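Suppose a colleague, Dr. K., hands you the sequence of a protein chain of 286 amino acids and asks what its three-dimensional shape might be. Before reaching for any lab equipment, you can write down a predicted structure in token form. Begin with the sequence itself:
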Amino acid sequence: MTALHIPLKNRPVYLQTDARRLLIMVRGEPFLIYSYGNDRSPSVSALYAADNRQVAGKPDGTEAITIGHGDVNGLSFIEGGHGAITTQELVVRRGLYSAGFVHHLFWRDHNDVPILAESRRIRVMAGPCEGGILDITLRLTPLLESGVRFAASAHDILQIHLAAGLCGELMGAMRDEHGRCGHHEVNGRISRWVSVDGVIRGETVGLVVLDHPLNPFYPTTWHADRFGTLSPSPILWAGVEETLTRTIVLRYRLHTHFGYVEAGWSHARFLDFAAEPTNNNFGEQV
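The predicted structure, expressed as tokens, is then:
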């Protein structure tokens, strides 16, 4: 039996395309929505745990996962900024056990000149504890001979915007690998992973965000606040600013889960991630 003959609800992962939107399902349920319309910065609009419980993204339109930066050569590359991240090519990949895409983009300045090339690889797989696995790999290449300057900013490269049930003093529980708990303890501290748990529609769900050992400045510091923003911060870790003169690759993994998990479970997921072979294929070769 081929993948096309397996009923949707029985497929581990399934990818569906729409106009300027991709939906990836895990075990027949929504897991990730990715939007890339011409009038917006490409981003993950929503991220779900099992049974349609949204763990990232907010009803006010805040995206689940955004990629950009608040100060690149003096320009903001977040939604509403003067810099723009534009699509060059998007290649979808479907398989029986994983699905995803490679998105090639340019970061353009206020004169529409490309200053940075980005290749963004997204891969989704079914995971343990009725969860899903989201791999995000970013390749950033400066296009200016003088390099591209990343200055200190509240918005660093990758930001996760947690749903209401996973943030706030009373609603969510955040911790890192060193046992520090709460956003005020995680913020500005070094860790290889950060986990967040909360109760959504009467059930405990959560996610774990993993840094990869091959990332620049590993292990990273983290930005976390009471509004639900969680971000590994490789640029801010380096100091006030960092001038990018060569290509860098950033790798992250997010695990969603259903039910409560202990710190040992989260650390085991990090060890799995660290031990996997590195895949440097960003779609240039078939």
